[in-house]
């Protein structure tokens, strides 16, 4: 009998895209079966803090808070390269130093970087789908848009600042991509199951990327994403691409830089190293020697 792995991911287009090859049966395992659930990213961050799922999509900035219980997976990752979340406001409005801002969750990467850059701002946390309306309706002075919301928003709004630009200032002279979303895997799983799980999830992203047009069409036809085909293609090119399959050394260095920024600014009690937090996939090769 196969061991069941409960995978949680967000309902945004890139996460749906990267997992769906498993759901459609394009990827399988001899020893594991998978079930999944979709929730907004902050709900997933909080679930990971409670240890609710075997594998869970998280904001990279949340990982140091769960590193004791979860390993960091190399696959199904989203990075920004010259783009990312956007701080928006009503057109023509000048923001005061202590402006009220809507953020998508306390443990999200955009919230960490924003709070470092704007320590006097007053954050209000809400589901990312309500942030644009909150700014338009005057509930907040500004908001940080994430996911598909960055592709198109009301003509009443304008970009005050790109989170990418904040990242570039904080990272220093190193040319590193912006770490946004990753995956974590419960450390209590047997090592062989952990390696198999990462392998299956990695294969799912690889196959999805290889068959992007077909899979995108299937997602649109089944109403599994919130955007049309044109926006879906644009969004996947940003956040679910060849760089999402397995983290490179430069991506891991970027994650470490994020952890360093968080630690220096008091967001974490200790400094975590991304390289030492990965599932030790080399064990499989040693075991079969």
Automatic annotation (TrEMBL):
CDD domains: PBP2_MqnD_like
Pathway(s) of this molecule: Quinol/quinone metabolism; menaquinone biosynthesis
Reaction equations catalysed: cyclic dehypoxanthinylfutalosinate = 1,4-dihydroxy-6-naphthoate + dihydroxyacetone
GO biological process: menaquinone biosynthetic process
Catalytic EC class: lyase
The enzyme's E.C. designation: 4.1.99.29
Entry-linked Gene3D superfamilies: Periplasmic binding protein-like II
Top-rank taxon, per record: Bacteria
Active site (record annotation): 147 (proton acceptor)
GO MF entries: carbon-carbon lyase activity
A Pfam family assignment: VitK2_biosynth
Annotated keywords: Lyase, Menaquinone biosynthesis
Family of the protein in this entry: Belongs to the MqnA/MqnD family. MqnD subfamily.
Primary role: Catalyzes the conversion of cyclic dehypoxanthine futalosine (cyclic DHFL) into 1,4-dihydroxy-6-naphthoate, a step in the biosynthesis of menaquinone (MK, vitamin K2).
PANTHER family: 1,4-DIHYDROXY-6-NAPHTOATE SYNTHASE (PTHR37167:SF1)
Name used for this protein in its record: 1,4-dihydroxy-6-naphtoate synthase
Gene name linked to the record: mqnD
